[in-house]
Every structure is written in C-alpha cells, then in structure tokens.
Backbone:
C-alpha cells in the first residue's frame, strides 16, 4: 500500500504537508501558533545545516552568524533605508551567500575540529560586529523591524505567518531532498564517505563543499530575515555562539543525513524548553540531561534510530 | 395562612436566587487574579532576575496570606526568559494568550522589554517593566510603565555631583552590554548641559578579566579629572580594582548598576572612595528618621533578608514597586479590567515605593525624579550618604 | 620599552596563562580520544565556585582549594565514565553534542547548588601591586604565571619520563598498538579526563581572585581555551601553552593599541588567518590521511 505513494520522498513530503495542514486543529491560540512558526523557521535553518553536517560531513559552529546577518541585513535595509521588505530580504540573502562564498574558500580547506573552530570564530566575529555597530543595528538592545509586506499588504498575525512558513518549509524540504538525490548530492555523500576517494574519481571536493556551505548559509540567512520580520524585533542574541550550538544540536538530535530528521530535531528542541518552562530552576539541568541521554543512547539521532527500528529491512 | 402563602410564593425565586449566588460567587471568588512575569533568572542577567523573582514570590505570598485583594487571591505566573529577547516574546505571548494574565510585571533587561512592547500594545495589557533604559518610556507608550530609575537620571545625578568638585573633563569607560551602551549614549547626550566634557571613551567586553590597558590610556591623559564607569556585572568591579592597581587617584564614579553589596565585596578595598547614584534602599539604616522613604525601604529590607538570608539589592526593589503599583491600581479601580487598571496606574500620585516617590502622568510613565536617587560614597566598605 | 606596552604585556600574559591551562585540558583529552570536551570551561567554573563555598563554610584557602580540585576531578571522571565511554564509536559531532549537553547540565546544577552572583576569592599573597618599569603587576598574576609554569614542566615530565605518561602518549599515537602492548585504554581515558578536570579547576582557583567567578564563567573561558588549543595545534602540549599565551597577548595588545571594543574580533581574526595559512595550527601534527 505504501508503495503506491511512490518513493519515501514523496511519502514524506505528503506526510509533512498533511501535518502542517491539520496542525491548526490542535493549536488553541496565538501562543501555540507562535511556537509552531518558530519550529518552522528553525527547521528551515536546520535543513540547510543538515546538508552541510549530515551529508557533506563538514561542521559549522557559526551558522547563527549567517542567520543573524540575514536578519539584520533585511531589518536594516527596511527600517533605515526604506527598502521594500521582500527586496531587502532577497538582498540580505544574496549578500550572505556572497560572504559565505568568499569566506568559505579559504576555511573549507580545514578539516574536523579546525574547521569547527574557524566557523566558530567567524560566528563570534559576526556577532561582535553586530553588537558593536549600534548606529546601524541598535546595539545589544536590538532594533525594531517593520513587518513583511506582500504586494502592499503587511503580513501580520500568527495565522497568516503560519501558512507562509509552512509553505516555505515544504519547499525547503523538497529542495533538500532533490539536492540529495541529484548527481551533486551523490557527489556530496561520496565526499562524506572519503574525501580522498571522491577526489580520485574526479569530484572537485573544494567546490562541492563550498557550494553546500553557501547553500546552507542561504537557508540560514533567509530564515533569519523571515524571523526578523515576523518578530518585529531583532537582537544580537540571535547571532551568538550559543544559538549556533542550539542549531547544531537540533540537526544532530534529529538525525544527521536525514532532512526529516532535521525537521523533527527542530520541532522537539524548540518545543522542549516551552514544556520544561514549568520546571523553572530545573529547566537547564533537565535540558542538558535530555541532550546527553539521547546522544548516548541514540548516537545517530532520533529519526535514523527509529527508522532502523521500525522500517522493513532494505534490500541492498 | 397568608404568611404561608407569601412564603410559598417567594420560596421558588428565593431558593433559585440563593442557589445562584451560592454557586457563582464562590466560583468568582476562587478565580485568582493572575500576575504574569518574565524575568532573566538564568543567563547573563541572572543577578537581576533572581532577586526580582524572589521579591515577587515573597510579596504575592504575603498578600495572599492577608486574604488577597478584592476578595480574590493572587496567582503569580513567572517564566525565565534568560535575558533572551526571543524567549521573552514567546513567553509574553504565552502569558497573554494561554495563561490569560491580568497584568504583567517583568522584563529584567531593556532588550527583552523592547522586544515585547509591540505585543503588549496590541493585546492591551498593563505592563510594568523592570529595565533601566530611558527608551522604554520615551516616547510614552500607552500600556507600558517602568519602575527603575532611568540611565539618563543616573548620568544627570553624577554630573550634578561633579560640579561642586570642579570637575569639567572626564573619561568614560563602559562595557559592551546593553545597559552599558545605553547609559554611555545618555551620558554623552546630557554631558554638555551640565558643563561636562567627555575627553576619553574606552570600552571593554562583558567577559573581560583585565582593563588595565584601557585605564592606562586614561592615566596618560592629563586632562582627565574624573572617571565614570557606566556598567554592571563583573566589569565595574574589575575596573575599580584595576583603577587602584595602576595608581589612578582621580575620583571614580560608578553607575547604579553596581548598587548591591556584592560590588563592595568583589572590589574590596579598592571600592572605598567610589561614588555612585543609588536608591535609598542601600542606606536604609542610615536614613534620617524623618526621611519619607525610611519606612518602606526598611520594611522591604527586613522582609527580604528574613526570608532569603541574602542582602537586598535595588533590582529586587524595582520588582516590589512594580507589583505594588499594579496591586494598588487594582484596589483603586476596584476592578481588574485592564483599561481601568492602566488608567489607575497612570494616575498614581505621591506613591512612596522602594525606589522613591512615584508621580505618574500621561506624559511620564516612569514617575520618579532626581530626588529618588541618592548620591552615595563607599567608606570603610559600606555605603554612606553624600550630603 | 614603554610603561604602557609593559602594562599590556603583563595583563596579556596573566590572562594568557589561564587560557593556556584551559587549552592544556582540551589537548590532553583530545590526545586520548579525539574528542573536544566542551565542558572544559565548566571544570574551571566548578573549581572556583567550589572553593568559594568551601571557604564560606569555614575552611582555610589551601584546604578548600585542594578539596575543590578533588571534587572537580571526580566530576571529570564521572563525565568520562557515564557519558563519553558509553558513546564510544559515535561520530565526532555526536560526541561534541554530548559534551555540550554536559556543559549545560553542569551549568544548570551550578545555578541550583550555588547562586547566580559573582564571587571573589582572597588573593594568595596580598593585593599590593608590584611596580616594574612603570607598569604594575598584581602578586596574584605572578602566582598564575608561576603555577602555570610549574604545571607545564610537571606535565612534560609526566608524559615523557614516567611510564604512565608514556602509556598515555602511546595511546594518542596509535590506540590499537597501545592496546596490543597491554595498555588499558579505558584507564588512559579516565586519567585524561581526571587530569583535564584538575587542570581546569586549578585555573579557576588561580584566576578567581582577579576576575571573579560565577556559575556561568565557563562558557567564555571554554571558548577562548578551545581557540587557544586550536591556534597552538590540537594535541600539542607546548602548542596549547603557546597558543594560550599568544591569544592573551593578542587581546591585550589589540585592546591597548587598536580598539577595546573589537579586541576579540582582532584576536579571532588573527587566529582564523593563522589557521588558513597553517591548517593544523602552530604546532599541530601534520596529519596524513590514510586511504
């Protein structure tokens, strides 16, 4: 019966679409919509980051920097220079892509922990610059962001945003799944397996890594811009090292090399603090414990572990 | 027989009425008044949020022990936003939509406060912020009030104190945090009005452990007659120690951000001679008997220290004022209708709080004036009033 | 040498020595199991905070410090035994997340057990600054530099002259071969974590009189220590020390001569440049990947 739905890919997409369409029945008020929207925005970032970490096997501990640049770029262009929000969002995303390309070329030659540190350093530099240039960014206290407007109508209200983010999430998943199955995607996975072997068969590893790096930065910047316009306010906290760690945790928790894993990871780790809020002082302790325990007992992440448990044995 | 008939005639409506009153009134009386709060109990601003939360819990319990207000108990719903503006936004949404609170007292930091103001204005819920920057109430927003003294007032109080000491050129050193940057901007703006010129402007990072480099630069500058450190957290304590370490002898002024015993403990002997503007709470015992604030601050100090066995700080005092402003407004309006409570808060006059005397108005949602700040000097590792 | 430059050098060396101790902790664990322990900063925090509360309950400083180092070592051992060991064979990223989770857990526990305030420790030998060539240095800074030097020498002696140390070095070069000659890799891992925890705690106790300690000092110190370890080359002891000192000096000089607001940007920027030019850090092993 499931075979009728085609590959796991379209099945998964359909399931995601169904969840997004039916979820509002369970969302009692705007607060729940707000959490759902945040899940969606985080998921978009994580899908891109997962391409980098899970499929290409690289690591980035500074992706919040790209998120923050996308957010502030769009915010500053709209608020201080009066650009139309959609144009500002596009411009900010393109600018971040360019930055990722320029910076990625030298640092993607690094491996493992050295790459981790380089991306970490990059993220820290970005967040300090954002925090210091208060004439443009409003400094550590942040700045107001005008709402996104589509053809003259301001997009406001949780319900409208929910559908927009939901549609964009489906689009992002579709893009990622297509990329993974494409020749480029296969080259990526070959890279992850063994960089030397990949080069031997003619894959330009530096170029591939760079492309994925730029793409994941684009996802992050775009989601950042959207978040800025949705919240109506942006602070440098969104570009800090701690936020970068949160994003990586979502990807690893959900399952690397699994686009749906990235979505699930974002969903769980965005809603968990809301659930744990009632624990007040114990929230941090429980959160840390949950992170450790899941990684110790499910080292491949949530989705791959569960999939291995419940899926029928694949024919090789 | 007539009486019996009369009784029978009235029995039905009477009993229905009695039954209705019996069920509705207690149900109404059981519905607690919900005060919502979001504070930075963990995170970089934890030493703001921690005493604030403790204060709110202490006094909500106390009010409930006396039967609550308007015949109803209070319920405090407090979330920890950890100094994070996005968490603050989501929690405020939760307070408004899910918990359906009647008023909000919270927002330990300016960033978090500014982030939630659009939500507050849209939902039209009375909100008293516990953060310091003047931008919170300038321009005035209909539903937003605040209790702490503004950073601009701190600058003004310091500049006024500098005049009799013939100080006209100063060095300014501040950190990278929101409070620091905001106060630095305010001081630069109002310095000219008081005849003060800022001839050096140094900064340090929030997590820095050594400021001798920056202070050394200032020591080389012979023009500097005093140094003003606009900051809070570990920075000012380290600046103070470094200041003495490299042998600087000009007067050192700190901000109200260090208004807690902890600063003196950390800076040690170096703190002696430092001046700062602070709320009367810190010198509660030393206030003259007829000081109008003495009663309120002594009572708060006593309550807080008795329950928590730790020193009071002015940050907790802001929470006390915020809570009681809301409570008194509800009592004055005899209702918890949000618009009525807001109006009652706005018409607060001559209300003596821990921070000072509050006189709110449609153009002033802060309510304190410079007299609410006292100039203190640290002598023998304790606070003393500068006359 | 101008007094100003001298002052910058003193402050840079002091903070650099702390970074060096934290970086050493990173390096030792990395050498043993190729894992970056993001909870290293929390060891520094626990050392400082535990000493503070032990002193508050009446113990004299030396005893409190000793007990605090011991307690932190136990925490390090527990981390290895219950988390890292269980996850042996997991990918690098998974292990990173585990240690990050550990750091959050430890921070949360610290916030519960102790309070959220800043705390200082008494200096080891007084507060009177020492004037040298127009600049001043605190006696505590001399303690920091001195103890770091002693620790570095002691570690060199341990790893190069004792059997246990050499066994640990052997494990870092080739785990399988080490096992074949009878070295207990499990024991090596335990000792690495314990040793790193002790080093971190020591750093925390040394620096607390100057920079104060609180429940959340671990985050930034861990980050800077990691940067120092990378700068010097992961897995290299001398690299960690030199990386730490270099980072501290870079920060102080940048703050003094360029811009105090951007000193971290300059320091990290230079580190990035070094990495691009020397992908294994200053002294890191030039790795060759075998296919």
Residues:
């Amino acid at each position: 019966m499931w075979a009728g739905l085609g590959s796991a890919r379209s099945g998964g997409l359909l399931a995601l679409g169904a969840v997004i369409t039916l979820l509002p029945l369970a969302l009692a008020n705007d607060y729940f919509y707000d959490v759902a929207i945040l899940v969606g925005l985080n998921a978009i970032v994580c899908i891109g980051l997962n391409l980098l970490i899970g499929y290409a096997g690289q690591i980035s501990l500074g992706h919040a920097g790209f998120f923050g640049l996308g957010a502030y770029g769009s915010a500053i262009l709209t608020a201080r220079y009066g650009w139309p929000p959609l144009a500002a969002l596009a411009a900010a995303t393109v600018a971040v892509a360019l930055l990722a390309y320029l910076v990625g070329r030298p640092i993607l030659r690094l491996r493992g922990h050295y790459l981790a540190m380089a991306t970490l350093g990059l993220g820290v530099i970005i967040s300090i610059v954002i925090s210091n240039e208060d004439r443009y960014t409003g400094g550590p206290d942040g700045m107001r962001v005008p709402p996104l407007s589509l053809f003259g109508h301001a997009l406001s209200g949780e319900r409208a945003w929910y559908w927009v983010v939901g549609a964009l999430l489906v689009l992002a998943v579709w893009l990622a799944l297509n990329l993974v199955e494409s020749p480029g995607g296969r080259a990526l996975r070959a890279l992850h397996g063994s960089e030397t072997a990949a080069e031997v068969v003619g894959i330009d590893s530096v170029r591939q890594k760079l492309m994925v790096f730029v793409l994941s930065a684009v996802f992050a910047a775009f989601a950042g811009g959207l978040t800025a316009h949705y919240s109506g306010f942006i602070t440098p906290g969104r570009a800090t090292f701690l936020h970068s760690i949160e994003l990586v945790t979502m990807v690893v928790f959900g399952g690397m090399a699994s686009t749906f894993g990235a979505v699930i990871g974002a969903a769980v780790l965005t809603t968990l603090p809301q659930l744990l809020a009632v624990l007040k002082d114990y929230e941090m302790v429980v959160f840390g414990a949950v992170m450790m325990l899941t990684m110790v007992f499910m080292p491949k992440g949530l989705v791959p572990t569960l999939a291995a448990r419940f899926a029928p044995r694949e024919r090789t | 027989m007539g009486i019996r008939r009369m009784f029978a005639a009235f029995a039905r409506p009477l009993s229905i009425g009695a039954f209705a009153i019996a069920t509705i009134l207690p149900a109404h009386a059981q519905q607690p008044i919900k005060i919502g709060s979001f504070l930075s109990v963990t995170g970089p601003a934890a030493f703001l949020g921690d005493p604030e939360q403790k204060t709110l819990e202490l006094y909500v319990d106390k009010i409930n022990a006396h039967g609550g207000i308007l015949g109803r108990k209070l319920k405090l719903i407090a979330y920890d936003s950890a100094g994070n503006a996005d968490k603050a936004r989501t929690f405020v949404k939760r307070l408004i939509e899910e918990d359906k609170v009647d008023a909000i007292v919270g927002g330990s930091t300016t960033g978090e406060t500014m982030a939630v103001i659009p939500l507050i204005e849209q939902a039209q819920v009375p909100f008293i912020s516990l953060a310091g920057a003047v931008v919170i109430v300038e321009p005035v927003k209909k539903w937003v009030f605040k209790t702490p003294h503004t950073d601009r007032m701190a600058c003004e109080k310091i500049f006024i104190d500098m005049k009799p000491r013939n100080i006209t050129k100063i060095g300014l050193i501040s950190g990278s945090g929101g409070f620091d940057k905001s106060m630095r901007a305010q001081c630069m703006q109002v310095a000219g009005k008081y005849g003060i010129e800022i001839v050096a402007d140094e900064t340090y990072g929030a997590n820095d452990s050594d400021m001798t480099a920056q202070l050394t630069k200032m020591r080389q500058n012979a023009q500097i007659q005093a140094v003003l450190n606009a900051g809070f957290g570990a920075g000012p304590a380290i600046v103070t120690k470094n200041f003495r370490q490299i042998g600087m002898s000009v007067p050192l002024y700190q901000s109200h951000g260090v208004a807690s015993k902890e600063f003196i403990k950390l800076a040690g002997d170096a703190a002696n001679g430092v001046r700062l503007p602070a709320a009367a709470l810190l010198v509660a015992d030393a206030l003259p008997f007829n000081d109008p604030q003495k009663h309120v601050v002594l009572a708060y100090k006593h309550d807080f220290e008795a329950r928590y066995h730790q020193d009071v700080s002015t940050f907790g005092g802001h929470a006390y004022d915020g809570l009681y402003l809301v409570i008194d407004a509800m009592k004055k309006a005899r209702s918890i209708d949000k618009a009525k409570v807001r109006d009652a808060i706005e018409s607060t006059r001559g209300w003596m709080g821990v921070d000072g005397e509050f006189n709110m108005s449609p153009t002033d949602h802060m309510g304190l004036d410079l007299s609410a700040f006292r100039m203190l000097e640290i002598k023998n590792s304790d606070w003393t009033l500068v006359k | 040498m101008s007094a100003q430059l001298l002052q910058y050098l003193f402050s840079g060396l002091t903070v650099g020595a702390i970074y060096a101790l934290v970086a050493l902790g990173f390096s030792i664990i990395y050498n043993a199991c190729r894992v970056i322990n993001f909870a290293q900063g929390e060891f520094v925090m626990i050392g400082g905070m535990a000493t503070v509360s032990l002193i508050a309950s009446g113990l004299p400083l030396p005893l409190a410090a000793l007990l605090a180092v011991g307690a932190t070592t136990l925490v390090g051992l527990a981390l290895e035994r219950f988390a890292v060991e269980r996850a042996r064979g997991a990918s690098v990223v998974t292990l990173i997340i585990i240690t990050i989770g550990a750091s959050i857990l430890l921070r949360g526990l610290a916030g519960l057990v102790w309070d959220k305030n800043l705390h200082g420790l008494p200096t080891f030998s007084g507060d009177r600054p020492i004037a040298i060539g127009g600049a001043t240095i605190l006696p505590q800074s001399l303690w920091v530099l001195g103890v770091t030097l002693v620790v570095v020498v002691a570690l060199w002696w341990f790893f190069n002259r004792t059997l246990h140390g050499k066994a640990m070095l052997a494990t870092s070069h080739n785990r399988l071969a080490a096992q074949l000659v009878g070295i207990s890799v499990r024991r090596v891992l335990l000792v690495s974590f314990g040793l790193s925890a002790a080093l971190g705690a020591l750093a925390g106790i040394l620096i607390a009189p100057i920079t104060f300690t609180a429940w959340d000092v671990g985050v930034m110190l861990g980050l800077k220590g990691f940067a120092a370890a990378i700068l010097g080359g992961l897995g290299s002891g001398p690299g960690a020390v030199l990386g730490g000192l270099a980072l501290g000096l870079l920060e102080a000089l940048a703050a003094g001569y360029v811009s105090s607001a951007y000193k971290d940007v300059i320091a990290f920027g230079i580190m990035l440049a070094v990495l691009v030019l020397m992908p294994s850090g200053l002294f890191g092993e030039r790795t060759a990947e075998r296919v």
User: Anything to note?
Assistant: Chain C has a mean pLDDT of 87.
